[in-house]
Amino acid sequence: MKQLIDPVMDESRENDLVIQLDLLIQLYDGAIRFLQQAEREHSAGQAQEFNLLLARSRMIIEELRNTLNIQHGGSLARQLDHLYGFMLDSLHQSELTHDIFYARNVVVSLMVLLDGWRSARPQVMMAA
User: Fold this and answer.
1) 113 CB-side CA count, 13 A
2) In contact, 74 and 81? CB cutoff 8 Å
3) How far apart are CA 50 and CA 39, in angstroms?
């Protein structure tokens, strides 16, 4: 009976990795979508909505940063931590100055990272 349980548990762990990657991709998509909406609100002169959408993006990036395991993630985790910190600072600057330039830089960074995570997905699927 034990032999039947172990493969199922291993498969469950592998499926968890795929699920975690899918959630990560969804978080990136959401942050990008909020920032793109913020840019439209900025263009329309809607400062309150602009700030609300920046805050939503900021909360996602804060959550991404909080989930990093610096001890086990090595240099990748440290680099992501620094990049997320830069993104948060940029969003704060955009909010303070009402300059969309800073938020646009965050979108570019998120899109590059998102492309990398999406590229990794097939490899994770094959391993699962």
Assistant:
1) 25
2) no
3) 7
Question: Which segments in the chain show pLDDT lower than 50?
Answer: 1-9
Residues with Cβ < 8 Å from 80, sequence gap 6 or more?
64, 65, 68, 73
- Go through the chain and tell me how many residues it has: 128
The alpha helices in 44-69, defined as continuous H runs, are 47-66
Element (H or E) spanning 109, and its range? helix 100-127
Contact between 61 and 87 (Cβ < 8 Å): yes
Topology (CATH) of 13-127: Four Helix Bundle (Hemerythrin (Met), subunit A) (1.20.120)
pTM of the model: 0.85
> What pLDDT is stored for residue 4 in this prediction?
42
